[in-house]
Amino acid sequence: MTAVLPPRPPAPERPVGGRLIDQFEYGLDAPICLTWELTYACNLACAHCLSSSGRRDPRELSTAEAEAVIDELQRMQVFYVNVGGGEPTVRPDFWHLLDYAIGHDVGVKFSTNGVKLDRTRATQLAATDYVDVQISLDGATAEVNDRVRGTGSYATAIRALENLAEAGMKDFKVSVVVTRENAGQLDAFKALTDSFGAQLRITRLRPSGRGADVWDQLHPTQAQQRDLYEWLLANGENVLTGDSFFHLSAFGEALPGLNLCGAGRVVCLIDPVGDVYACPFAIHENFLAGNVRDEGGFQRVWQSSALFADLRSPQTGGACTKCAHFDACRGGCMAAKFFTGLPLDGPDPECVQGYGETALAARDLELLPPRSSVDHSHTGPVRGQPTLLGVPSIPARICDESPLAGFPGV
Amino acid sequence: MTAPATAFDPALPWRRSRSVALRPEPFGALVYSFANRKLSFLKSKTLVSVVESLADHPSAEATLVACGVPEARRGAYVKALADLARSQMIEVRT
């Protein structure tokens, strides 16, 4: 399971004092920021879904198991979790789990496409302390958004934002994945967000899940990355980024936030069936550290897994450590490298110094990039399917969709 | 910008804010405010014991002495405490 990582010498002793970033490299007793995907079920079929969501997994954690995870997070003093999916609000016990977490000192920040945020829910959220809401939107216009997220998804998100604003909800977020198609809309996103009294959050597109299928087409160009970097330097204090653009720091000035890959060190992912991965963008068996259902639960996985121990020894070798910008970008995003078929101790595919492009060109094309075996994508057409990959085919006769169609004797 | 409501005065009695939780870590501790949802880091174990024992002493200055912070380092600790006061991680005892 750990063979994926380049060989590293045994971890040196943790230094005493010094910079926090150096301390984080050695890991923490509990994560600072934990992502918990409550379900793989989703009403949408976004072209770039990082978790290849769509269908519910029958092995999903039960309500009681999810409560037990929350109890454990409270004991470990994980002060808040980022809840996502799939679409977390389609879980029937979502609102119960939200209250349960808050009642156990675990704050919740959840991401949603807005499908369930009607006026009643918006009012309920506005009255709840210690909860944050992020509405996903990947275009400042319906045209740009719906191509990737599906027809009608822009309208759904805007309705949810209106409901939250009307209910007097404070500090809710609009969460944007920056793509080649929306990178020119940053000011428009900011204006839209401001108009609802909300806060803008932008994050990086990773080639994870179905994102691998559209990454070549959607990841920002070098020129767009430069513009994004300048935009973040100018606006960064008022915009959240989940510290996901640290690879841009190699342009020169460090961006605000943690400029380090936190996978298995300060962040991790619990997926809907309880599997613990090094980060939300690394749903692949090579980054699977254990399961919360195992003996010892989440705490044992976090503190004792061999994979996480390996991730917590600082990188000392590889091409990047010889680069003058290594201290700025720390080699970039592990998941971005892995799912584009690049070595983990080499440059990020979007390395702003251009080493990523060289590395991509030098890949052995015989070897396909690794793919996750975890795929819950809808298998049939979905209402309002994204058109990025072309118009979905409509079955000629409805019976063509029948699971028994074509069987003799039916 | 207006000045913070209460500037940090090391002669006053302080304590860890009642809405703040402290999680020990190998390098020191992580502090989290349930009131303003801010996260901060205490970068040394001595600073952790200072913050934890503020409530037992008549002033922040007395706490530094009791925790054995050398005189030459007290300026740095006062600055760290002032930062924590600004982010409401510690509060004046009344």
From TrEMBL, chain A:
Protein's recorded name: Mycofactocin maturase MftC
Entry annotated with the keyword Glycosyltransferase: no
Domain Radical SAM core residue range list: 28-238
Catalyzed reaction equations: [mycofactocin precursor peptide]-C-terminal glycyl-L-valyl-L-tyrosine + S-adenosyl-L-methionine = [mycofactocin precursor peptide]-C-terminal glycyl-N-{[2-(4-hydroxyphenyl)ethenyl]-3-methylbutanamide} + 5'-deoxyadenosine + L-methionine + CO2; [mycofactocin precursor peptide]-C-terminal glycyl-N-{[2-(4-hydroxyphenyl)ethenyl]-3-methylbutanamide} + AH2 + S-adenosyl-L-methionine = [mycofactocin precursor peptide]-C-terminal glycyl-N-{5-[(4-hydroxyphenyl)methyl]-4,4-dimethyl-2-oxopyrrolidin-3-yl}acetamide + 5'-deoxyadenosine + L-methionine + A + H(+)
Species this chain originates from: Blastococcus saxobsidens
EC numbers: 1.3.98.7, 4.1.99.26
GO molecular function, one term: 4 iron, 4 sulfur cluster binding
Keyword hit for Lyase: yes
PROSITE patterns per record: RADICAL_SAM
Signal sequence, start to end: none
Keywords associated with the record: 4Fe-4S, Iron, Iron-sulfur, Lyase, Metal-binding, S-adenosyl-L-methionine
Taxon lineage: Bacteria, Bacillati, Actinomycetota, Actinomycetes, Geodermatophilales
Cofactor(s) needed for function: [4Fe-4S] cluster
Alphabetical list of Pfam families matching this protein: Radical_SAM, SPASM
Highest rank taxon of the organism: Bacteria
TrEMBL record, chain B:
Phylogenetic classification of the source organism: Bacteria, Bacillati, Actinomycetota, Actinomycetes, Geodermatophilales
InterPro entries (UniProt xref): MftB (IPR023850)
Protein name: Putative mycofactocin binding protein MftB
